Amino acid sequence: MRVVKGVLLDPGHGGDPEEAAERAGENYGGLSRAAKQGYREECYGAITESGYEEKSATLAVAKKAKKYLEDQRIPVALTRDRDTYVGLNERVATAMSDEFKDWLFVSIHFNRSSGQQQAVNLSERYLAPRGFEIYVLPGTGRRSSNGTRAPSGYLTVNQTRSANRLLAEKIKGQLSDISGLRSRGIKEAWFVVLRGSPMPSVLIEAGFMSNPEEGRLIESSEYQDSLARAIVGGVLDYKGDSIVPVKDERKPRLPLPTMTLSKERSSASFE
Ligand SMILES: [Zn+2]
Questions:
Q1: Does 108 reside within a domain?
Q2: Distance between CA atoms of 44 and 119, rounded to whole angstroms?
Q3: β-pairing verdict for 201-208 and 104-111
Q4: Mean pLDDT across the stretch 6-30?
Q5: What mean pLDDT is predicted for residues 84-106?
Q6: Distance 48 CA to ligand 1 centre (A)
Q7: Does residue 249 come out as left (phi exceeding 0), alpha (psi in the -120 to 50 range) or beta?
Q8: Which domain holds residue 226?
Q9: Is the confidence at residue 219, as pLDDT, over 50?
Q10: pTM score
Q11: Separation of 250 CA from ligand 1 center, angstroms?
Q12: 2 domain-assigned
């Protein structure tokens, strides 16, 4: 049995461009088109053909996973628990907090197959990709899965490479059991939240919002629930405790402490 002190869930994206710009001390209305689009990408993430935003899917899955973790009496916290803007450095500052020392870090995102944010009028080639991927930090001296080297000025506090990989394998095993959800494997990338988290860390791209069929699934509460159960199942497998059924709806006998995060944490820069 491996000790899992808790799980810090990181629902990707969130908030609105105006809010994000204001937090950065900028007036959104006066920004260039490109700068506005940058904020739209950061806040909304990918958008399905029908207009459903990645920020909503990531928060929904994280909230469901939180409930299942609590049912298992595993302490859990979220880097955001509502629709609000939280920058990458702020997420990293949370992960580095003593409060979450030796926890697991699970970032939740959804994918898209084109540079275009919303899946409208995409060609067949862009509509086709589907399935999930799980990202971990590249090994020391290695390149990312798409061939890039560590960014200049590269700094990581993460020294848990084998645990990252094991957690990714366990979550992959559970997600692969979801009917119709294809595994694209475990990949390596220099994501800020992966290199800034000192604990075992993974980033899940839980499906393609640009794929019309998968996008519709991602919009549904039932499917989000399957994803949440699979993520928690992966954590339990990592813990070596998979005999505890995730589908068990019994309430825990002891009340669990619910942790909410202060929005005003200091930011640490890892760019
Ligand atoms: Zn994302």
A1: yes
A2: 13
A3: parallel
A4: 96
A5: 97
A6: 13
A7: alpha
A8: 7-239
A9: yes
A10: 0.88
A11: 33
A12: no
